[in-house]
Amino acid sequence: MEKTGLIFFPAFDWAISPTHPEREERLLYTRDQIFEEGIIDHPKIIEYKPRLAEEIDIQRVHFCVPDIKSQTTTAHLISAGSTLKLADALMSGEIHNGFALVRPPGHHAMRVVHGNRGFCNINNEAILVGYLRTKYKIKKVAIVDTDVHHGDGTQDIFYHDPDVLFISFHQDGRTLYPGSGFVEEAGGPGAYLTTINIPLPPGTGDKGLLKVWREIIKPALEAFQPEIIINSAGQDNHFTDPLANMKVSAQGYAQLTAELKPHLAVLEGGYAIETALPYVNLGILLALAQEDFSWVKEPGCHSGQLAQSQEVDRYVDKIIQYWQSKLAGKRPDKEQLFGPDKKYVRQRSIYYDTDQIHEHQTETVEYCPDCPGLYTVSSQAAKHSGKNYKIWGLSIPYNACPSCVQKGYDLWEKPGSLPGYHFLYLQDKSRDVYLTGK
C-alpha cells in the first residue's frame, strides 16, 4: 500500500503580529477538520514529527545578512526541516508522497536575505531542493507553485539553474503583490525557458486553473522529465481568500493535485482560515493518498460563485497560446543569449514589505560552455533601523566545471579586490562548502 506522509507544524511561537493573516490558526482549523473526518487514522496516512533544518541546509541556498541566526527563528528551522524529514521518508521508500503543512512559509525569500518579505525569511522549497541534490544526488527537479502570489523568491534562486524547472501560475502581478511573474521572466541565459510564469486575470476559477495545467504545465513537465516534482501548495487562489481575487474551489485544488501527482507538497499561502484552508488541505491530502475527494465541499460553494467570465476565458486562452508557441519554438543558442560580452548583468531594486527594507542588487553570471557559470551578487540594503549592510556573494553551481571551480576560488582568495563590503559569502555547491568573510 502506497503511503502519504504528513507533518503539521503550526508554529505557535511565531507570528508577525497577533492579528496578522499569517498566524497559527491557519493550520489549527485544518487539523480539526482532518481529525473530525478521521483522515489522520487512515491506513494510507503516516504522520511524522518535524525536525530542525541545520545551518548548512540554509547555506546551500541563501546569503543571510549578516548571518543565519539573525534571519531565522526555531520556527523557521522546523518549517524547513519538516520538508527534509519528508524527503528522507520519500527517498527511503517509506512513503509515496508527502505533505508538509507547516509555517512560516518561504516562497518569497530570495537568494540574498536582509529580512522578511512577503511573510518569508528562508525558502523551504529551495532548501528542500538543495538537500535532495546533495544527499540523494537528484539532478532534475520541478517546482510547481500554485500560490496566488508569484513565487518570486523561488524564481530568483533558480533563475540561472538549467536543472530546476520553476513553474508558477498566479494572479497577474499588475493586480497583486509582488508585482512580478510576467511571461517575459523566462530564466537567465544559461537556463532559458526553465522558468515558466503564467499570470492569470482576477476571476480565474477551476476551469482556467485546470486548463493551464493540462495545456501548459503538464506538457512542460513531460518534456523536462524531472526526477522529483515539488508543489508549493499555496491556497489563496480560493474564492473566499481575503488577500486575492480568484475563484478556485477545494475541488479545483484537489483535482489539480490528483493530476499533478507531486512527490512532495509544501504549504505556502492561504488566508481564508475557516472557509477555505480546512477543505482545500483535506482535498489535497485525499488526492495525494489517491482517495475519493469528490465529497469535499466548502460552505458557500456553488456554480455561480465559481463561474468565469468570457473575458477571463479569452485571456487564459491567450496565455496558453503564448506558451505553447514559445515552448514549441527553436530555443536560442546559449552563447547568443549571453551576448558579445559573454556576461549577464542585472541590476534591480527589491522591497521587503514586511520589514520595510530597500535593497539594491547587481547580479552577474559569466558565460561558460561547459556549465551554468559562476554567479556573483553585490547587494546593499537600507533598513528603517539605520543598520545597513553591503555584501558580496559568490556561488559555484552544483554541476560546475573544474575551470569554473578554480576560477571561483581564485576570485574568493583575493579579498583585496573587493573593498567596501561588510561581508563576503562563498557557496560552493559542487563540494558542499560554504564560507563567510569580512
TrEMBL record:
GO terms for molecular function: histone deacetylase activity. GO terms for biological process: epigenetic regulation of gene expression. Residues 70-275 form the Histone deacetylase domain. Signal peptide: none annotated. Transmembrane segments: none annotated. Belongs to the histone deacetylase family. PANTHER family: HISTONE DEACETYLASE HDAC1 (PTHR10625:SF10), HISTONE DEACETYLASE HDAC1-RELATED (PTHR10625). This is Histone deacetylase. It comes from Thermanaerosceptrum fracticalcis.
